[in-house]
Batch of 2 targets.
Target 1
Amino acid sequence: MTKTVTSPYDVAEHLRTPEEMAAYLEASMEEADGDAAFIAKALGDIARARGMAQVACDAGLSRESLYKALSGDRNPSLDTVLRVVGALGLKLRAEAVSGPEAIEPGASARR
């Protein structure tokens, strides 16, 4: 029987353009289902594709703290997320939800 040789898949190797990075972040946010660590991991993938040292410098963070914040093991602060998103040249957007997912006016935002 022939053995199949595999290698680890690293999404950072495939994120080459700002448009690909934005699409990856958007898809990750849709899949996250409220999991901040999942989104942080996606930002970490994008930061590695761009160059972690440069992103850390542009975000005003140390490289080590950036690796920790975007490891997927933690929930980084909103301040950190916004600084990293800005350093990556990306923008977060809000969109109104319609249909069964929408929150009724006056209803609590917590589920």
Note: Residues 18-32 form the longest helix (15 residues).
Target 2
Amino acid sequence: MKYSTTAHFDRAFEKFSAEVQSAFRKQVRYLVVDIRYPSLRAKKYDERTDVWQARVTGNVRFYFRIEGDTYRLLNIQKHPK
């Protein structure tokens, strides 16, 4: 698998600290190898739109769609608790 980003994702990603960006890069490497990697905690976020959610840190999540052999990254944001 591979991944690509949307312009919306890129704009949101730039707003995060270097630490969160680094953590995301680590997590996305796990994603392309195995969506079930434990620290990702990937799950279907919205059945209707086929959007998935995965963990970056305790309070940051990223959202994506699976399109063929590509994870299309849609957004990254703080997780409301």
Note: The mean pLDDT is 97.
